[in-house]
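Box 3.1 A note on notation
Throughout this textbook, protein chains are presented in two layers. The first layer is the amino acid sequence; the second is a token string describing backbone geometry. Keep the layers aligned when reading.
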Amino acid sequence: MRWADAANSPVAMEQIGIGEVFVIAGQSNASGRGTNNQTTGVYPYPSVTLYGNDYVWKRLQDPTDSPVNQVDAVSDDSNAGGSVWPILGGLIAQYETVPVAFIPCAMGGTGISQWEPSGSHTNKTTLYGSMVWRAGYAIPGGVRAVLWWQGENEAAAGINQPVYFAAYTNLSASIASDLGAVVMPCKLENASEYSEAAQAQINAAIGQAWSNDVNTVQGPDLSVISTQPEDTVHLITTVKLQQAAGLWYSAMTNAFGW
């Protein structure tokens, strides 16, 4: 790149990506608890990238939510492992033939109330503020969507559909205002840790948001995947992470018209 009146003073950058950018938010399954780290397949950097917790752009590889040199301690997750995100990134790069990037902001064990904005919406000591600040700093031009994988905390607490829906729509409205982005929430995986009735309440709230919230687009229904027998809460095997990534990708093609 050079100024028209300064032809002898070019400025060069090795990599420039123009494509799809997604924020990852929620709790442990969003962070990743897979036994094995996943890969993007044959679509490495610069096609699939990550704005890491260390505020450095790099090739996307697991653990996507790595805490190494983490800047914002509020989402420091030392248990991060294999995840769906490298697989999903590879699918997008392969079939949409565009670069794709992710900004991981998830934190294991968090409830939706911990994600609600309070005070300054860019306060990096809060989960919401860290997410908004990082998304705006890394991608001044905006992100496509916030990928929301959360609700296990509320299933464990027995929160009902109306309460979760109200909390979720407050969050999605704030995200729309602060980032100009939609939220794509998934229905929860079939986890043996919680009763079917408790999970059904959260998934019903997500389904209600899919249908009735203007700031939401329909995400994947992960209830078709069971955490058993490997785990009571998390998707940990490569096969199940691949299945979940495929469902995320299918939801994206439908929501974004790819």
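The chain has one domain: 20-252. DSSP finds seven helices and six strands in the chain.
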